[in-house]
Design a protein that fits this description.
With 735 residues, the chain is an alpha+beta fold. 47% of the residues lie in helices and 11% in strands. The relative contact order is 0.11.
Length: 735
C-alpha cells in the first residue's frame, strides 16, 4: 500500500498529460500537422519499408535520390520509442511515441523535483510546464523535439542522486545514457542546448563540493561517446551537405523575435493569432514560449534560491538569444562557440526558457508555502495585478500595437480571470489548514491555463486520412521517379525510389544539380555558408541536366508545361515518360573534370555523350568513342547495395547514377575496385573488357568507430564495477 500511495502522484501526472492530449490518445487517431504529414510520417514509413525488407537502415533512396539514413537523427534510429511502436501505422506510431516522450518528460521532472525536496504540488506544476508548455506543445509538429526533451530531467536527477549518495558504476552509466538520449532524440539543436545546460549544472554542482565530486565531470564525455554512432555519422553527413560551411549569420537567426513586442506572447499566446489565421514574416510556432500565467508571475517576482540562480541565468540567456542577431550576444556565439553556426532558428532557445521556468516555478511555490517573509506574497500579488493591468491596457490598443486584436481581446477574460484567481490564492495561502494545498492548487491552475491555451492547438486526424499512399507502381515501373504534388515525400511513404522530396538533409552535390536544373547555374560554392531554405527543391524536367537523375517517370497532380511527351492519366495523377539516363550504364568515353570546372561548363554538358570523372590516382582505361554507351542490367538492388551485370566491348566505366558518398565500396567479379565520383555527383567503377558482375555496397564509414566508442564506455564502466565489487569482497573478508 505504501508503494501504491507513493506511485499515485506520478500516475496522476501521467494521466494529466494524456488528458491534455485526449484526442490524440484516442485509438485510431494521430497528430496530423504539416511537418508530420510531409516529413516525419513518410520517413517513418520509409524506415518500416527498409527494415521489413530485411535491410539495415544505413541508406535510403526515396528522398533526393538518396542519402545516409544512418546519419539522420530525424529518422530516430536510436530511440526506443521508434522500435516500441514500429509495427503500427506510421502516423499512429509517431503519435504514441510523442505521448510517451511527454509522459516521460513530465514524470522525470516530477521525480527530479521531489528528489530535490519540492512538495507534490510544486513538482506537479514544474512537470506540467515542461511537458505541456507552449514551446513543447506547438513543436509536437517536430516529433524529435519531445524525444530530445524526455531524458533531460532524468539526466539531472542522476546528477543529483550521485551527489547525494555517491557515484556508482550503474548511476554513472545511467546518467551518461541520459546525455546520449538527448542526441538520440534527433533534434540536434535542442540536444546542443540541453548538453550545455547539463554541463553547466554538473560543473556548478561539482564546484559546490569543492571538487570532491570531480568524477561526475566524466559523465558528460561518456554520454557523448555513447551517442557517437549518431554524432559521428551526423558530422560526416554535415561535411557532405550544403551546410558544410555553416550558415550566414542572417540566415542562422532568421526565425527570431522581430522586436520586444514578441514578449507579449508570454502573456497572450494568441497575440498574433493561430494557424491558419496567423500570417506574417515569422512562423507562430517558432515564436511562442508561453509557460502559463502563474509561472510567469512567479518567475518575474520571486527571488531564486541556490541553483535557482543558475536556471534564472539560463532563462535570461535563452530569451536574449530569441532576438537573434539583433543582439551582440548572438553574433559572438555564432563566431566563437563551436557548432553554434550550424543552428538555424534563434527562437528554439525557448526550449531552455521553458525548462528553466519549470524549475523556478517549483522553487517559488515552495518558498511561498514556507511563508518566511510576509512581503514575498505581497510582491507576487502585486506582480499578478500589474500583469492584469497590462492585459487590460493592451486589449483596446492591440491593433495599434501591431497585434491581431480580435483573438487577443477574445482571450482577455481568461487572462484576467487566471491572474485574479492566482493573486487571491497567493494572498490566502496561509489560511488553508494544510499548507500543501497552496502549491497543489497552483499546479491545477497551471494545468488549466495551459490546457485552455494549447489543448486544441495540434490538429488530430484519423490515421486512415493520413495514410496518403503514392500511386501504385506496376510491373516494370520500379524505376526511380520524380514526383510533384501536395506531399513531396509520398515517394518515401511508398518505399519507391525518388529524386524529389522535402528534407533539410541531402547530399550537397545533389542540391547543386537540383538547383542548376531550375536556374542553369549553381547556388553555392562548396564550403561557403548557406543563405537559403534548401529543403524544398524540385527538379525542372525541361533542363538538360534532368537526365542525370535517371528518373524516366514524372508523376504529378496536374499538368506540367515544357514537356514534349503527353501525359497519361492515372486517377488523380498525371504520368509523364521522361528522357533519362539509365540507372546503370557502360561508357567508353569520359573526360577528367573536377567540380569547379564542371560548374563552369554546366550549360555545355551533354550527359548522353560524355561521362565526367573527377581526378583520381587510380589508373583509368583509355577514353575512346569506338563503342557507344549502353545500359547495364541491374540484377539486384536494395537500400544498401546494387548488383549489376555489365558487358563491356572494351575497358571502360560502369556508371551508377546513385549519389557518391563515403562508405560506398565496389567489387568487380569479387575483386575490390575503386568508386569514382562521376558526372559531378554520382558513381563510376572502372571495368575491363568482357562480362562482369559488379556489386556496390554501402556501410557507414563511422559505424565501427561509433561502436568502439560505445564499447569503450561499457567496458570502462564494467571494469569499474568489477573492481568495486572485488574491493567490497576483500573488505568483507578482512572483517
Amino acid at each position: 500500500m505504501r508503494l501504491l500511495v507513493a506511485l499515485v502522484p506520478g500516475l496522476l501526472v501521467a494521466l494529466a498529460v494524456l488528458v491534455f492530449h485526449a484526442r490524440a490518445a484516442t485509438p485510431g487517431m494521430a497528430f496530423g500537422s504539416e511537418d508530420l504529414r510531409e516529413y516525419f510520417i513518410p520517413v517513418r514509413s520509409l524506415l518500416q519499408h527498409l527494415v521489413r525488407g530485411g535491410d539495415w537502415p544505413f541508406w535510403q533512396r526515396s528522398i533526393y535520390a538518396g542519402f545516409p539514413l544512418w546519419g539522420s537523427g530525424e529518422a530516430a534510429l536510436f530511440l526506443p520509442t521508434t522500435w516500441l511502436y514500429f509495427a503500427l501505422d506510421a502516423a499512429r506510431a509517431l503519435t504514441l511515441g510523442s505521448l510517451t516522450h511527454l509522459v516521460a518528460a513530465a514524470l522525470g521532472m516530477f521525480t527530479w523535483q521531489r528528489h530535490r525536496g519540492r512538495s507534490l504540488g510544486a513538482a506537479m506544476a514544474s512537470a506540467f510546464i515542461v511537458a505541456l508548455g507552449g514551446f513543447t506543445t506547438v513543436h509536437l509538429d517536430h516529433w524529435t523535439f519531445s524525444a530530445t526533451l524526455a531524458p533531460l530531467p532524468w539526466t539531472l536527477l542522476g546528477v543529483d542522486v550521485a551527489l547525494r549518495r555517491g557515484l556508482t558504476p550503474g548511476l554513472f552509466l545511467g546518467t551518461a545514457l541520459g546525455i546520449a538520449g538527448l542526441w538520440f532524440g534527433g533534434a540536434a539543436q535542442l540536444a546542443y542546448f540541453a548538453t550545455i545546460l547539463v554541463g553547466g549544472y554538473v560543473g556548478l554542482q561539482v564546484l559546490g563540493t569543492r571538487g570532491r565530486a570531480w568524477p561526475l565531470l566524466l559523465v558528460l564525455p561518456a554520454g557523448m561517446l555513447l551517442a557517437a554512432p549518431l554524432i559521428l555519422a551526423g558530422a560526416e553527413f554535415s561535411a557532405h551537405s550544403p551546410r558544410m560551411g555553416g550558415m550566414t549569420l542572417r540566415w542562422a537567426s532568421f526565425y527570431h523575435w522581430p522586436s520586444p513586442r514578441a514578449l507579449a506572447l508570454l502573456l497572450f499566446p494568441d497575440a498574433w493569432g493561430r494557424p491558419p489565421s496567423y500570417s506574417g514574416e515569422y512562423n507562430y510556432w517558432e515564436m511562442t514560449g508561453y509557460i502559463g500565467l502563474p509561472a510567469l508571475v512567479l518567475v518575474l517576482t520571486t527571488r531564486p534560491r541556490r541553483m535557482g540562480w543558475y536556471f534564472l541565468a539560463v532563462l535570461v540567456f535563452s530569451l536574449v538569444l530569441c532576438f537573434g542577431d539583433d543582439t551582440p550576444l548572438y553574433g559572438l556565439l555564432f563566431r566563437y562557440l563551436p557548432g553554434f553556426d550550424k543552428l538555424r532558428v534563434a527562437t528554439r532557445a525557448l526550449f531552455l526558457a521553458n525548462f528553466a521556468a519549470a524549475f523556478l516555478t517549483a522553487d517559488a511555490l515552495d518558498a511561498l508555502m514556507e511563508r518566511r517573509r510576509w512581503w514575498q506574497g505581497l510582491q507576487v500579488v502585486a506582480g499578478a495585478l500589474v500583469l492584469l493591468g497590462v492585459a487590460l491596457w493592451m486589449a483596446p490598443r492591440a491593433d495599434a500595437l501591431g497585434f491581431r486584436g480580435a483573438p487577443l481581446r477574445a482571450n482577455v477574460p481568461w487572462t484576467v480571470g487566471v491572474l485574479a484567481v492566482f493573486a487571491a490564492w497567493v494572498a490566502v495561502r496561509g489560511v488553508p489548514r494544510w499548507p500543501a494545498l497552496f502549491p497543489m492548487g497552483a499546479a491545477l491552475l497551471v494545468f488549466a491555463d495551459l490546457h485552455h491555451a494549447y489543448s486544441g492547438y495540434m490538429p488530430v486526424l484519423p490515421t486512415r486520412e493520413l495514410a496518403r499512399h503514392y500511386p501504385p507502381l506496376g510491373a516494370g515501373e520500379k524505376d526511380r521517379v520524380v514526383q510533384f504534388g501536395f506531399n513531396p515525400n509520398l515517394t518515401a511513404a511508398s518505399g519507391a525510389e525518388g529524386v524529389t522530396g522535402y528534407s533539410q538533409l541531402l547530399v550537397d552535390r545533389i542540391y547543386d544539380l537540383l538547383y542548376a536544373t531550375r536556374t542553369g547555374g549553381f547556388s553555392i560554392i562548396a564550403g561557403a555558408p548557406v543563405d537559403d531554405e534548401y529543403g524544398k527543391l524540385w527538379a525542372q524536367p525541361g533542363s538538360p541536366l534532368f537526365p542525370l537523375f535517371a528518373a524516366p517517370q514524372l508523376i504529378t497532380q496536374g499538368p506540367v508545361g515544357g514537356i514534349a511527351a503527353p501525359p497519361r492519366r492515372d486517377g488523380p495523377f498525371w504520368r509523364y515518360t521522361m528522357q533519362a539516363l539509365p540507372l546503370a550504364f557502360w561508357s567508353q568515353r569520359y573526360e577528367v573534370m573536377d567540380g569547379p570546372r564542371f560548374r563552369e561548363q554546366v550549360n555545355r554538358f551533354r550527359p548522353f555523350e560524355t561521362v565526367t570523372v573527377e581526378p583520381t590516382t587510380h589508373p583509368l582505361p583509355p577514353s575512346a568513342s569506338t563503342h557507344a554507351p549502353h545500359p547495364a542490367t541491374v540484377t539486384s538492388r536494395g537500400p544498401n547495395h546494387t548488383q549489376v551485370e555489365v558487358s563491356a566491348e572494351a575497358p571502360g566505366l560502369l556508371v551508377v547514377m546513385d549519389p557518391w558518398f563515403p562508405g560506398w565500396s565496389a567489387e568487380v567479379d569479387g575483386q575490390s575496385a575503386p568508386v569514382l565520383r562521376a558526372d559531378y555527383a554520382f558513381m563510376a567503377i572502372p571495368v575491363p573488357e568482357g562480362t562482369h558482375r559488379v556489386v556496390l555496397r554501402y556501410v557507414p564509414t563511422t559505424l565501427w568507430m561509433g561502436l568502439a566508442c560505445v564499447l569503450s564506455v561499457l567496458a570502462g564502466t564494467g571494469g569499474w564495477a568489477w573492481l568495486r565489487r572485488r574491493g567490497a569482497v576483500r573488505a568483507s573478508h578482512s572483517h
